[in-house]
Design brief:
Largest sheet: none
Number of strands: 0
Number of helices: 16
Helix content: over 70%
Number of domains: 2
Radius of gyration: 24 Å
CATH topology of the largest domain: I/LWEQ domain
Low-confidence stretches: 1-22, 405-413
Oligomer: single chain
Distance between the termini: 77 Å
Shape: globular
Mean pLDDT: 86
CATH architecture of the largest domain: Up-down Bundle
Order of helices and strands: HHHHHHHHHHHHHHHH
Length: about 425
């Protein structure tokens, strides 16, 4: 007995097995950045955006623009739902990974159906969209099983989503203006749902959430570059070269006014906001809503650039002029609202630039498209140069010292 007792004493104590945290549960992912699977998921949005711009390009009418905007809005809201989801669940764990792949496949099918979404492929689009949203809601319901506040918010979202999907399915069986009206109603009910059931229960990681939306803006700007290549299908002459260079200048200017300072300040403001309703409403307004306006503006610009590269010497008709100039104006107006929402100050210079671009739309329908693009490039370069020189000090502090600028005239969002 004694040796046995000594042997027992000599054995190391058994290490207790730590309790495993459920892989699919509502947990804040503090310190985490965007994962490779999220980037992989976002690439599907590239095709969706390309399809939406192709739809608008194929129908150079105000009605075509409206249809393209409706499809883009539906797909954007679907993508945004997953941006919120991956703040509370790890997308690369267990069943979540499989569900994300399934949602990607359905998202891809919906994107493929975009050209016929208001025609023969309307039902296919609605069904694929339903699968994307169902997977999203199902994951959120499972993740919120131990969080009553989050569960209430998810249930409210599920209700508005079900109504939206039902309207899209119903729209596939009718034609004409009634179909467009049902699409508009579906988008309005789905996107405005969070106002009806509140924002208190949601959770998000500010850095992750802001980075995810910044990357999608980058993807949209990439689509404008792709449009330059697609538009230059004919012989590459001096006009095409000039238009390509000017198109890159415009895209670079739009990149600058967002990523140079605005995105940095906005992320820090979101991080400082009180968790819960204040932070959630700021994220909803600044990212889910206003970033859609930015992406829509870039999509319009891409359509106008595609047309310009193909016909540099010809005038743009009114709709195409509105796409080229109005797209950049919409982007800037969204940034003005973005700043107003986050730091409660108005960027007069960006507002003025947007208004000038809008005022030039009638002239763009008379001037050669290359001249119109040159005017747009000059205006945007002037805006960027003025901000970089006039606010060099505050810009340096934001970019290199990690400080948000004080309220007042400076390059804040």
């Amino acid at each position: 007995m004694a040796p046995a007792a000594c042997q027992d004493d000599a054995m190391p104590a058994a290490t207790p097995t730590p309790a495993r945290t459920p892989r699919l549960t509502a947990v804040m992912r503090e310190g985490e950045r965007v994962t490779p699977l999220e980037l992989f998921f976002d690439l599907v949005f590239v095709l969706a955006l390309t399809q939406c711009t192709a739809l608008m390009y194929a129908h150079p009418t105000w009605g075509g623009l409206l249809k393209g905007a409706l499809v883009l809005g539906i797909l954007w809201w679907s993508w945004g739902g997953y941006a919120w989801l991956t703040s509370v669940v790890d997308p690369e764990e267990g069943a979540v990974r499989i569900a994300m792949f399934a949602a990607m496949a359905a998202f891809l099918v919906a994107a493929l159906a975009v050209p016929g979404a208001f025609g023969s492929e309307g039902l296919l689009f609605a069904c694929a969209y339903a699968v994307v949203r169902t997977a999203h809601i199902a994951l959120f319901l499972i993740a919120s099983r131990d969080d009553p506040e989050l569960r209430r918010s998810v249930v409210g979202l599920a209700g508005s989503t079900a109504i939206g999907v039902g309207l899209l399915v119903g729209a596939s069986f009718i034609d004409g203006g009634a179909r467009v009206a049902l699409w508009g109603l579906a988008l309005a009910l789905d996107t405005l749902g969070p106002f009806f059931f509140g924002a208190e229960g949601w959770k998000l990681v500010p850095g992750h959430f802001a980075e995810r939306h910044g990357l999608i803006v980058l993807i949209a700007l990439g689509e404008s570059i792709v449009a330059l290549g697609v538009g230059a299908q004919a012989h590459v002459d001096a006009g095409v070269v000039a238009a390509a260079v000017l198109g890159v200048v415009v895209a670079a200017a739009l990149w600058w006014v967002y990523f140079d300072v605005t995105a940095l300040v906005a992320e820090r403001v979101l991080s400082r906001a009180a968790p819960g309703r204040e932070r959630n409403e700021m994220a909803r307004d600044s990212y889910s809503y206003l970033h859609f306006a930015m992406v829509a503006g870039i999509a319009l610009l891409a359509v106008g650039l595609k047309r310009t590269l193909g016909h540099t010497a010809d005038p743009l008709h009114l709709v195409r002029s509105a796409e080229l100039l109005g797209g950049a104006a919409l982007y800037l107006l969204a940034l003005v609202a973005f700043r107003l929402r986050n730091v409660h100050t108005l960027s007069g210079r960006r507002l003025a630039c947007a208004l000038v671009l809008l005022a030039l739309i009638p002239a763009g329908a008379a001037l050669p498209s290359l001249a119109t693009l040159a005017l747009e490039a000059v205006l945007l370069i002037a805006l960027v140069a003025y901000e970089a020189l006039r606010y060099a000090g505050s810009r340096d502090r934001v970019r290199h010292q990690g400080a948000s600028p004080p309220t007042g005239p400076q390059p804040a969002p």
